[in-house]
Amino acid sequence: MTAVAAASVSQVAMAALPEPMMMGKPDTAPPLVPTTGRPYNPVVTLNGWTLPWRMNQNVKEFHLVAEPVVREIAPGMNATLWGYNGQSPGPTIEVVEGDRVRVFVTNKLPEHTTIHWHGQRLPNGMDGVGGLNQKQIPVGKTFVYEFIARRPGTFMYHPHADEMTQMAMGMMGFWVTHPKEKHPLIQEVQRDFCFLLNAYDVDPGSTTPMVNTMTDFNLWTWNSRAFPGIDSLNVRQGDQVRIRIGNLTMTNHPIHLHGHEFFVSGTDGGPTPVGSRWPEVTTDIAVGQMRQIDFLADEEGDWAFHCHKSHHTMNPMGHDVPTMIGIDHRGLVAKIQKLVPDYMVMGERGMADMGEMQMPIPDQTLPMMTGTGPFGAIEMGGMFSMLKVRKDQKPGDYSDPGWYKQPAGTQSFEWTGNLPEPARFKSEMASVDGKVPGLQGAAEAAAAGPTTTLTVRKPGAGMHKGH
Ligand SMILES: [Cu+2]
Predict the structure, then answer these.
(1) Rounded-to-integer distance, Cα 328 and Cα 349, Å
(2) Distance from the CA of 313 to the center of ligand 1, in angstroms?
């Protein structure tokens, strides 16, 4: 894997500055084990990579290039975004507590920019708010940020210049500061993953996000990838695992892990006091927040890991579709499709049909519910991935072990015995006869005749916005 990653990184010489490393692929790069400076257990960035640095007289020097990029959101869809060093998000920066860090930032965007180092303790002039702490970095210019990474923890970086546009276009990156020695609140882990929550509004058929969208996004992504484009998190059974997540979308995301319980061991404010930790299987991450979760991966299997907002595990085409459950429209769709070739409706049995649908969709968009598992369509999109726990995963091996083979007799199965009619509660039997037992006025209700039937009309197309 190291060889593959090295081959996909090209080096462009730039006099006196550290050579900016460029990444051409959206794959999850193997961890970048440090060869200079203090040792640490490196993180793995989901569908991302860590930026190499050079040591210059005890200063760790990095070079970020802000520029337009093409990011594959998932196979079949490329988005025109802005990012750093060839990708969106930009590369993860990993340093050690106490390191002096110098970051060169070259602006190759069509407008000025800055970088704010979210969560860091640093001199005010290094905080990166354009106009407030510094002059904007003009097009074509390179600025230098320099500070000591004072606090170990989970951080991110993003522009503080024309923020609405630049973040909606994908400009952001992760930053991890490892502790310089054993820290009472930072447990040692075998696997350490990180990613950012982001969202885009890209019309089917186009490639550039609509930057004025405030809430109604149609691509819910982790590190600018939507399922099935998000890699799984692959671990060895018995590993202590950490996952670091930051939210740079416009809404909160309750992130949910199956099969295990975790503690929130840290935020962008630092490690949490032990007495403040309680077990969870979902943690809500608000806008501008970061959460670091720790758990023991002790259950073998392929465990779903996703945002619990059900509309965030879907790709485009989920909007403005009327609910058709209970309506028999067989034959109707084929007739309409003669006039409007891409006409489609939600299935009359629910939406599950969409997961298996093979109908053609416009170029440059993704199926709404997709992904195939060992037992058929997974019917997910957007913010969905899997934690894969395996007994035989080698230490330090992050490669995908394939699908879990469940031991015989441990999977839910079809009941093929007798199905007796269910016995009803007595009260239910009574109401079937038009009586409402146990209530005042039951006699009058019974005298009034059979139960009234209500017709409920649900809001139709165009009423379902803002998710
Ligand atoms: Cu969400």
Answers:
(1) 9
(2) 7
